[in-house]
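User: Here's a structure from my thesis project, written as structure tokens. My advisor, Dr. K., wants to see whether a designed sequence matches the one we expressed. Can you design one independently, without my sequence as a hint?
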């Protein structure tokens, strides 16, 4: 039995014998007699498919998101769910298997929607008295003091130490410093352009590309600036949108533009994880999340594109 898409496509193909889509302005126009019928049919079929995908998006429910992220807090689920549905629709993450992979990667990268910036290891300060300050983040190293925010599981809170009392400081983000594959060329770029947003957009190159993209949409924010970086971290809409943008338009270590929907369509979870993470950190957790998400979204691989 023919599907709705098959019927609409067939009808459109008949129409396309006389009309085509202008590749520049996307307006339907009379088809030149010299144009091959096969080209018109293909062009029109793709157009209809994209239209139906865009307009038949099935929203993920709160119950489904909770089932995919059972450790997430209710307030975080409720805060991000509307943005996730908007973003998945916007970036054509619109089939069960695409959603399964996207939500699974976000779940891992954001620690179940609880973090929108990259921080899994502490900064370390060695003091002159021989003590070591760890288990926290240096959130300000201006003037003559370091301002440190302790991790919650170690009591939380903020305090300062005098720079004159320290011997050395090791930043977790030193590993990104002057990584040309990430576009980091200046001193301090590693920390400035650490992972932010739900999928941890990383590196000067991606921050610049995302700025250009958002500027074209009328958002004049410079996401390479301090204020822009904070917006990427603290604004739920932007934290989520940046994840969708990276999924379809970001760059992996200076390589060509990504389109992780294509890998999701082929169920290539390991490759997606390497593109998102840059390695294989947390690979088992990512796999487990995808498996669970497929169950929740009832992904049948044989028909996952429907």
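Assistant: Designed independently from the structure alone:
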């Amino acid at each position: 039995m023919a599907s709705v898409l098959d019927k609409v496509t067939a009808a459109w193909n008949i129409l396309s014998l006389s009309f085509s889509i202008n590749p520049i302005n996307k307006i339907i126009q009379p088809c030149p007699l010299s144009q091959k019928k096969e080209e018109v049919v293909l062009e029109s079929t793709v157009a209809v498919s994209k239209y139906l995908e865009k307009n038949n998006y099935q929203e993920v429910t709160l119950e489904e998101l909770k089932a995919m992220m059972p450790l997430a807090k209710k307030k975080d689920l409720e805060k991000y769910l509307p943005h996730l549905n908007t973003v998945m629709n916007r970036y054509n993450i619109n089939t069960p298997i695409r959603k399964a992979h996207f939500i699974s990667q976000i779940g891992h990268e954001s620690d179940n929607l609880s973090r929108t910036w990259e921080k899994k290891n502490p900064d370390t300060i060695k003091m002159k008295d021989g003590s070591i300050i760890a288990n926290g983040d240096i959130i300000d190293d201006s003037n003559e003091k370091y301002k440190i925010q302790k991790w919650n599981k170690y009591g939380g809170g903020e305090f300062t130490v005098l720079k004159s009392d320290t011997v050395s400081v090791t930043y977790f983000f030193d590993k990104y410093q002057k990584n040309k594959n990430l576009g980091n060329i200046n001193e301090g770029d590693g920390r400035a352009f650490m992972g932010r947003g739900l999928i941890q957009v990383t590196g000067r190159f991606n921050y610049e590309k995302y700025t250009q993209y958002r500027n074209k949409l009328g958002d004049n924010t410079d996401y390479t600036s301090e204020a822009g970086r904070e917006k990427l971290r603290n604004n739920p809409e932007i934290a989520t949108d940046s994840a969708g943008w990276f999924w379809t338009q970001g760059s992996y270590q200076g390589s060509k533009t990504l389109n992780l929907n294509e890998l999701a369509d082929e169920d290539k979870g390991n490759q997606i994880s390497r593109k998102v993470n840059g390695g294989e950190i947390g690979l088992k957790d990512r796999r487990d999340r995808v498996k669970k998400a497929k169950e929740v979204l009832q992904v049948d691989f044989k028909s996952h594109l429907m």
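When you compare it with your expressed construct, this may help: Residues 7-54 have pLDDT under 50 and may be disordered.
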